[in-house]
Structures are given as C-alpha cells and as structure tokens.
Amino acid sequence: MLAVERRKRILQILHREGIVKVSSLSRQFNVSEETVRRDLAKLEQSGGFSRTYGGAYITGNVNPDIDIHIREEFYREGKEDIGRLCAELIDDGDTVILDSSTTALHIAEKIMGKEHLTVITNAVKVVTTLSENSSIKIISTGGTVRNRSLSFIGPEAEMTLSRYFADKAFVSCTGADIAHGLTDTNEQDASIRRIMFHQAAKRILIADVTKFDKTAFSSISTFNDVDTVVSDKILSAEWEDFFKRRNIVHLYSV
Length: 254
Known about the structure:
Blueprint: H1 3-17, E1 19-21, H2 22-29, H3 33-44, E2 49-52, E3 55-58, H4 68-71, H5 76-89, E4 95-98, H6 102-110, E5 118-121, H7 124-130, E6 137-140, E7 144-146, E8 151-153, H8 155-162, E9 166-171, E10 175-177, E11 181-184, H9 187-198, E12 200-206, E13 218-221, E14 228-231, H10 237-245, E15 249-252
Parallel strand pairs: 4-5, 4-9, 5-6, 9-12, 12-14, 14-15
Antiparallel strand pairs: 1-3, 2-3, 7-8, 10-11, 11-13
C-alpha cells in the first residue's frame, strides 16, 4: 500500500473513531510504529486533531468522551512528569483529594512511599493502587460507577466529598481556556471536580499541554479557583502572563 493511501485510511479511521493508537495502526497496516508516527505527523499539518506519542485524537469536538483505557496510553511521559512534580507538593500527613483523571493515577503511583496520608478520591484505579500502602488512609466517595472513566459519580459521590476538607486537591480537566476556564466532557464528572476544588485549602490544576486552549462540554470552574497549575512543559507567553497576573504558580518539568 502506498503511503498516501495508508494516510487516507488512517484519517478515515480517525474521523470515524475519534481516536487512533499507534500500536493498533502498526498492526493493521503491517508497518512499523515509527512509520505510523511519521504518517500522523504528516496528517497533523491539515489540522483538526492532536498528535501524541501514542497516537492521535480529534480536537474539534467539545465532547470528546474518550475511554480511560485509551486515555492511559496517550501522553504517558508528560503525565508521569506531572505526577512526579505533584508528589513533591504532598507532605507526609497531608489530606489530599485526587480526581479520576489518568494523570491523578500517576500521582498516586508517585506517593506510594509517603506516610500517614489521607487520600479522598472518586477514582477506582487510585483506590486500587493506594490500597497497597497500609500507611495511606483511603476514603472512596462511592456512588455510581461511570465505566468510561472508572469514576464514582452522582449524588452519593458528591455528598461524600462535601463531608470532608483537604489540604490539597489535584484536579484535571479536558479543556483549559483563558476565557472559558476549566471544562470537562461530562457534566457529572465536572460537578465532582468542582466540589473537589471547593473542599480544599490549596487547589492544584493538573494538565498536560494538550489540554490548553481547548473548551469542552461542561464547566468545572474559572481560574479564580486555581492556586497552582502543574503541567509537563512551559506554555505560551500569553498563558504565562495570565498566570502571573492572577498570582497562579505554574510548575512544569521542561
């Protein structure tokens, strides 16, 4: 198959599915993963989607509700960097809130060596990960499990969150925009994240570079509710100036 035909078919899959993985395309077209990455780099020039090391996804839709098992494969290195930076912000004895984002799972993995923590979370995978450390007290919100995000949502989860206060909340988003603030693809996940910020003394946005300058379906909060932003890279001059004017601390690894 000629490269131009392969790229055409990749683009068709991308528009049909909303997301593609390098590993799957490599097997489907019987080419190396590096060849697929070059194809995606070429296609990205036409716009309309974002490319990561693990694949690509459509960016034009305000509601790109992508399954957690797929999201875990995207931008893994950047999320690991964010997890490491966030772990440095957590002290022994802290009470922290972790949301159900794939980035929060990397935070959970990085704090396994901490002692006497209390972690409040609505994330099934965070509960499973942290349960291996008996020195960490885990409070799960309970509620209705949303399969696409493996998160607890609904009135029960919201009521549980409202009963507790934390030193720090680590909350992600689908989109971060200067005008529209923080947004999510699902209104119930957005509501949970809104309460998490409200119940914490220090509110920390965790977002890799793919989240910025995007707006999703449902509002979480404005940047008035954000004290610190942790990303994997430095952002544009416009964003850095915005953070400075609002006294928002921006931490990044590169």
